[in-house]
Amino acid sequence: MTNLPKSDVGERRAEQSAGRSFRSVVMAVSVFYITAALLNGRALHEDAKKREYGKVRDVWVAVTRPLNDISVFLQLDHFREGVESLRKENP
Amino acid sequence: MNFATVDFAVFFLVVFPLCWALRDRTHLWKWFMLAASWFFYGYWNASFVLLLAGSSVLNDWAAMRIHHGKTPRDKRLILTLAVLLNIGSIAFYKYASFLLEQVFWVSSKVTEPNLEAWLPAFDFVSGIILPVGISFFTFQALSYVVDVYRGRMKPADSWLDFALYLAFFPQLVAGPIVRAIDLVGQLALPKRLENLDIGRAGFLILGGLFKKVVIANFLAERIVDPVFARPDLYGAVDTLFGVYAYAIQIYCDFSAYSDMAIGFCLLMGFHIPLNFDAPYLSGSIQKFWRRWHISLSSFLRDYLYIPLGGSRGKGEVTVAKNLIVTFLLGGLWHGAGWTFIVWGALHGTYLTVERFGSTFFLSRGVKGDGVVLMTLRRFMVWHLVCLSWLFFRCQEFGDAKEMFLSLGDWSAPSQMVTWSVLVAIVVGYATQLLDGSRCEKVWDRFARLHPALQGGVAAVLLTVVLGLGPKGVAPFIYFQF
Questions:
Q1: I need a surface site. Which of B66, B84, B111, B188 has the fewest CB within 10 A?
Q2: Residues B454, B370: one domain?
Q3: Residue A2 has pLDDT above 60, yes or no
Q4: What are the chain B neighbours of A2 within 8 Å (beta carbons)?
Q5: CA separation for the pair A45, A31 (Å, rounded)
Q6: Catalytic residue positions of B?
């Protein structure tokens, strides 16, 4: 079975793309998840608390609580607050 | 599972590294990806995983029987059976209620209806739950069986390959409709990190989130939902901009899902074809359909329009009939309702009239590709498409009638058209410029950044997108189809 897609943007770019080490991909993804979790820690915790009562909610609340605490401690939550206030000020 | 939720973020956090860690152990990798895809689908309703699994068993069996069939008659028989079962499953889940209503309506015109006799049937169909994405994965299965029958491809090496193709989670619930010929072959190839197009993937995912969370959800909340819910409360300006906003909302919503699906596929080493390519910039309805939901329009072309006879021979009336039948069925594919059928009929009619019109003008040497004429053509295409969206969005003809009545009331002051709504419409329209490979230089620039910086920039952009969007995550519009 060697049916390959017809020529498209993806195929052309796949042929052109430069080599990428596994380490660099892991680094990019890890930094993304950690930074996103810290910048959005407070919002994640608030969303978790709005879930339906039950075990799933308990897990989400427990997992997001430390994220919320670190985010608030480092004042990283202010960034998202600032963006949200932009939206609220321009209805 | 919705791409724009934290649940999906956690799911992908687990799937992404394991997908790459297992890439050299192909058999295990396939089982892992199939399990992940079934989990993704079953997260909404676990019982429908059986439907998906059943569909993969049936269609894999049919393709094998067709491939090994001894006579053309045997092959045709199996193909017919597979088509009937696939269409039958969509008909049962999606159209049973609609069909029963039509039969009831007709019979009530002929005889006095005995409501008690009809009640059990209505009770039964009202309990049918529409499985998410059934139209998408059933069309994918059909494309596979038909392509094997036509000899365009060999059957997948194993049931596992086919089941993974059918259930592959990025494009499972709302497309694009990726054909087996485009994806099954990739499953058999070893995945290489050298092919990981992180620049394009990041751009598509973040751009898709922006379109969905900031533009589509905002327009839905601020103007589209209120105007379509109670058009009698609004005048012409609000109604007109409500329809414009819906045209932008549906583009930003659906193309966002497609973009994110392509992006997640890229992150796992797969590339699937484009589904949108700046459709509202088209200067003709024909071009619009080459740029809007490309995977569906090409599916309808290859598996319905061309088998019906297409645009070759037998005269213009036959061509017009083929176009209208194709689009009527295309409308019905979207949902069980007369407003969807009208939407399809409108597009079939547009294409027919355009075909005759272009023949007429071309024979007189009028090309219409100057700046002014092209602008006029785009303006006309936009409004014709908006007219069809009006029917598409309305649940009943009565709602569409209310919308038209409101469009005639120019004396009422505008309540919904604020600066932020206008900006969202303009920005949503401009997001078409992100389609295709128009932003290739930006992808490449992003891909050249240090990996830590890539992750940091993406996280900051994600936070901006989430902060700018309304609270809560509305499901994607095309989940219902």
A1: B111
A2: yes
A3: no
A4: 185, 188-189
A5: 20
A6: 334
Q: Are B197 and A14 in contact (CB under 8 A)?
A: yes
Residues B250 and B288 reside in one and the same domain: yes
Identify the CA nearest to B145 among candidates B166, B175, B130.
Answer: B166
In a domain, B269, yes or no: yes
Select the highest-mean-pLDDT range: A19-28, B358-367, B376-385: B376-385
- Report the distance separating Cα B237 and Cα B416, nearest Å: 9
- Does residue B84 belong to any structural domain of this protein? yes
Output the CA torsion sign for B335, B249, B467, B199: positive
Contact B184, B156 (CB under 8 A): yes
Asked if residue B132 and residue B95 are part of one domain, the reply reads yes
Cβ-Cβ contacts under 8 Å, A28 against chain B:
198, 451-452, 454-455, 458
Question: Is B293 found in the same domain as B431?
Answer: yes
- Whether the CB of B186 is below 8 Å from some CB of chain A: the reply is yes
User: How many independent structural domains does chain B possess?
Assistant: 2
Let me know whether B16 and B155 are in one domain. yes
Read off the pLDDT of residues B381-430 as tens digits, 9 standing for 90 and up: 999 999 999 999 998 888 999 999 998 888 888 888 888 899 999 999 99
Nearest to A20 among B194, B271, B459 (CB): B194
In whole angstroms, give the CA distance from residue B61 to residue B69: 12
Residue recorded with tokens 């969303």: A47
The partner residue sitting opposite B266, judged by closest CB among A10, A18, A20, is A10
- Mutation for B interface: A32, A46, A77, most B CBs within 10 A: A32
Cβ neighbours of A13 in B, within 8 Å: 197, 200, 271
Residues of the domain holding B329: 198-468
Residue A11, pLDDT score: 66
Instruction: Choose between B118 and B262: higher pLDDT.
Output: B262
> Does residue B401 sit in the same domain as residue B265?
yes
* Any domain includes B477: no
pLDDT tens-digit series, residues A13-44: 666 655 566 778 888 889 999 999 999 988 88
B263 in the same domain as B293: yes
Residues of B in contact with A90 (CB under 8 A): 419-420
Which of residues B191, B215, B249 is at a domain's end? B191
Say whether residue B160 is in contact with chain A using an 8 A CB cutoff.
Answer: no
Asked if B153 has any chain A CB less than 8 Å from its own CB, the reply is: yes
- Domain ranges, ordered by start, for chain A: 41-91
Pairs across A and B, CB distance < 8 A = 144
Domain boundary among B174, B191, B208: B191
Burial of A11 (0-12, 13-18, 19+ CB in 10 A): middle
Average pLDDT over residues B42-48: 86
The type of residue at B238 is: D
- Rounded CA-CA distance B95/B59 in Å is 22
Which pTM value belongs to this model?
0.87
Q: Using a CB–CB cutoff of 8 Å, tell me whether B413 touches chain A.
A: no
**Is 90 exceeded by the pLDDT of residue B4?**
no
B58 located within any domain: yes
Crossing angle between the packed helical segments B451-468 and A77-89, to the nearest 10 degrees: 40
Of A1, A10, A13, the CB nearest to B154: A1
Residues B167 and B231 placed together within one structural domain of the fold: no
Of A1, A35, A80, the CB nearest to B467: A80
